[in-house]
């Protein structure tokens, strides 16, 4: 972000952010591949700015206005979120829509194995993940004004149609395994059971901020993919990540001795979540996990295409993530077969 952009943002914040005073400095966060995110330091304190990326974008993608709306609705509920302050829909300010929210101090955890933690602390973090996910799905849509935050109807059929189209629009080379997964999902879409809650859309440990001195969650971040839909999609997203290899790229738990590390099994986490919500443990969970792999593969394909076109937040990282798409398709097929 250059000085001219910062100056325009500062002038906008003077008009729209109560108590703001400059000068303004910005530092770009390295994490994230979708909406570029910056820490803003000013005389009046620290803020966070999230904006749409520049360049041609897929329809409905990078919806920072939806992020702003849902976080405003969730403020002071049981779901911890940063307090959003102001949304700028005037693209003449910096060329894209953006919003400003408070900066929340906390501890980020990059990987679910939680390197450097002791087993008891790891177990507490996972229990907190289950608690917060249950809180998201138990949000009162009427009380928060989110009854129309997502379209009505069959969530999985709707998401299948959306991400199939997004994937085809982002396709850069043929991937037979993704073609097979798309076909399998289309043939096995479950009947709509009428369950409809707020869903985060990308619920992972690295999208949570924890207390620096404890294991309580201070903020759930990155609400770009949130909507109304089936809660098991979020739950399956957690399990999906854990089935990836450990390390900075996969950030999963595959092959690790979870019991020794103090980490729950897939079934154990699902049971914790269901106990929090007072619901029965789901049967035939394979479809949900297969769908999660497909959806994330489609998202990463979009990241790859933006990286190739020069529009990604971090092009080098975008290409590395895009290389995972075939593996996501393979793991989705494995979940389907199971």
UniProtKB/TrEMBL annotation:
Signal peptide: none
Single GO term (MF): kinase activity
Classification via CDD domains: ACAD10_11_N-like
Annotated protein name in UniProt: Predicted kinase, aminoglycoside phosphotransferase (APT) family
A UniProt-annotated Pfam family: APH
Keywords: Kinase, Transferase
Coiled-coil blocks: none
InterPro entries registered for this protein in UniProt: ACAD10-like, ACAD10_11_N, Aminoglycoside_PTrfase, Kinase-like_dom_sf
Aminoglycoside phosphotransferase domain span: 27-249
Organism classification: Bacteria, Pseudomonadati, Pseudomonadota, Alphaproteobacteria, Rhodobacterales
């Amino acid at each position: 972000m250059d000085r001219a952009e910062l100056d325009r943002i500062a002038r906008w914040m003077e008009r729209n952010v109560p108590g703001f005073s400059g000068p303004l400095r910005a530092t770009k966060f390295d994490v994230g591949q979708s909406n570029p995110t910056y820490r803003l330091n000013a005389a009046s304190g620290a803020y966070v700015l999230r904006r749409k990326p520049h360049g041609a974008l897929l329809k409905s993608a990078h919806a920072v206005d939806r992020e702003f709306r849902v976080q405003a609705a969730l403020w002071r509920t049981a779901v911890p979120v940063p307090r959003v302050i102001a949304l700028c829909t005037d693209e003449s300010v910096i060329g894209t829509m953006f919003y400003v929210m408070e900066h929340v101090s906390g501890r980020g955890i990059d990987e679910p194995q939680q390197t450097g933690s002791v087993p008891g602390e790891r177990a507490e973090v996972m229990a907190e993940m289950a608690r917060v996910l249950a809180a998201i799905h138990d949000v009162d849509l009427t009380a928060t004004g989110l009854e129309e935050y997502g379209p009505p109807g069959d969530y999985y059929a709707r998401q299948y149609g959306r991400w199939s189209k997004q994937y085809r629009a982002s396709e850069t080379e043929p991937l037979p395994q993704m073609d097979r997964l798309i076909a399998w999902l289309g043939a096995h879409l479950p009947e709509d059971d009428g369950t409809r809650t707020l869903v985060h859309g990308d619920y992972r440990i690295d999208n949570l901020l924890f207390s620096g001195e404890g294991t309580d969650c201070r903020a759930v971040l990155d609400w770009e993919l949130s909507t109304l839909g089936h809660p098991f999609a979020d739950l399956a997203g957690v399990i999906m990540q854990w089935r990836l290899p450990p390390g900075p790229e996969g950030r999963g738990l595959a092959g690790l001795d979870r019991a020794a590390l103090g980490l729950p099994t897939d079934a154990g986490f699902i049971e914790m979540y269901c106990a929090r919500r007072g619901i029965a443990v789901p049967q035939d969970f394979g479809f949900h996990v297969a769908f999660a792999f497909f959806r994330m593969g489609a998202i990463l394909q979009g990241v790859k295409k933006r990286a190739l076109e020069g529009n990604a937040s971090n092009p080098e990282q975008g290409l590395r993530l895009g290389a995972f798409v075939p593996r996501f398709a393979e793991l989705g097929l494995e979940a389907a077969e199971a």
